[in-house]
Structures are given as C-alpha cells and as structure tokens.
C-alpha cells in the first residue's frame, strides 16, 4: 500500500512562531542557507563554517552529510521585509532578508531639514517636501530635457521612477552656478557646473 501522506502540498501554509536562532548557524550566527551540513548525530552547521572548522562544534565529529530536510525548512521560512510598514509587500526567505533589505527601495530616508525629524519612503518624503516645507520642486523624466529655475538654494527633483534628488545651487562668478546634486536613495553626491548667458 502506498501512503498518500508522503506527498508534499506546497500550498499548505500556516503562520508559526519559532525561535529564529534555530535558522542561524551556531558558529557564525548567519542565517542557514543551502547547502547545510550536519554531523553524524545531527548538529547543523553552515557550509562555510564546516569548511573552516572541519569538525563539529557541538561534538567534534568530523564526518558531515548534507541535510536536505533542514534546507527545505530554511527555504520555506518566509518573513516580511523590515520596511513593510513603509509599503514593501515583498515576502522574502529568511536567509535573503539582509540582502533584500540593503537594496529595498522602501527604506525610509530622512528629511534633510536639521530641525525636522520626518522620515519615510521616497513618495512620503516628496509629499512632505512639497506640502509641509513648500520647497521648490520639479518632476522630470530621465533623458527628457526639462527647465529648472536657476536660483541659489536647494531644489528638489523627482524622477519618473520616484527617485529623489536634491539640487543645491551656488553662484560661481562670473560663469554661472556651481550645482551639486544629491541622490537621496543611493546617497551619492554629484557636482557639476552650469554656464549660461543672459540674453
Ligand atoms: Zn556558519
Ligand atoms: Zn555534532
Ligand atoms: Zn523590502
Ligand atoms: Zn521635514
């Protein structure tokens, strides 16, 4: 007789509470990700620690096997992004959490006004800049020319993909203006110089 209970139902999901340290390597404390190894009595270790130590940190045994059962568990452990409350709806496997969050576009950014403690996603910040501070702002599309009033001070730019930039203009006599442009998501500063003629 063949038992049906051996079949796996990938859609069967339930929220459970577990001690997350079970999903971390006991040596490096990084989340387990395949390949995961176990010693002959079943202590788990990540592959990079296993390569470094060559013996089990729990019992000093030196023979290891790959543990597919544990790999299935870590591959099905799905967690929300830390920026879920800022709008990220991604569900990520626990071992991908750190790399996702480092690149997540919902990471809140802070208002550049030193007297203001507002933080939020790019779209919340844009609304905040334009309604709360009423800072000069322009929306633009990449690779499409657009006009910006050249005057000293900060000017906020929003690209078609929601990315925010702060442009800061300083007069540079006699040629025009020095302009710095700060990419608020990637924290990169560009500096360039504008020259113009007054007609
Ligand atoms: Zn490890
Ligand atoms: Zn062991
Ligand atoms: Zn995210
Ligand atoms: Zn503010």
Structure, described:
The protein is α+β, with helices and mostly antiparallel strands and 199 residues long. It folds into 2 domains: 15-103, Zinc/RING finger domain, C3HC4 (zinc finger) (Herpes Virus-1), CATH 3.30.40.10; 109-195, no CATH class. It contains 4 helices and 12 strands. The strands form 4 sheets. A 5-stranded mixed beta sheet has the order 8-9-10-11-12, covered by helices on one side. The chain has a 3-stranded antiparallel beta sheet with strand order 2-1-3. It has a two-stranded antiparallel ribbon with strand order 4-5. Bound molecules: zinc ion (4 copies).
In brief:
Helices cover 18% and strands 27% of the residues.
Write the layout of secondary structure elements.
Blueprint: E1 36-39, E2 44-46, H1 47-53, E3 64-66, H2 68-76, E4 78-80, E5 91-93, H3 97-103, E6 109-110, E7 119-120, H4 122-133, E8 137-139, E9 153-158, E10 164-172, E11 176-183, E12 188-195
Parallel strand pairs: 8-9
Antiparallel strand pairs: 1-2, 1-3, 4-5, 6-7, 9-10, 10-11, 11-12
Query: How many domain units?
Result: 2
Give the SSE string: EEHEHEEHEEHEEEEE
Number of strands: 12
Q: What small molecules does the structure contain? A: zinc ion
Radius of gyration: 26 Å
Distance between the termini: 93 Å
In CATH, the architecture of the largest domain is 2-Layer Sandwich
> What is the SS-derived class?
alpha+beta
Main beta-sheet strand count, sense and barrel state: 5 strands, mixed
Task: Give me the CATH fold name of the largest domain.
Answer: Herpes Virus-1
CATH class of the largest domain: Alpha Beta
Count of DSSP H/I helices: 4
Described by the principal axes of the CA atoms, the overall outline is elongated
Give unreliable regions as ranges.
1-5
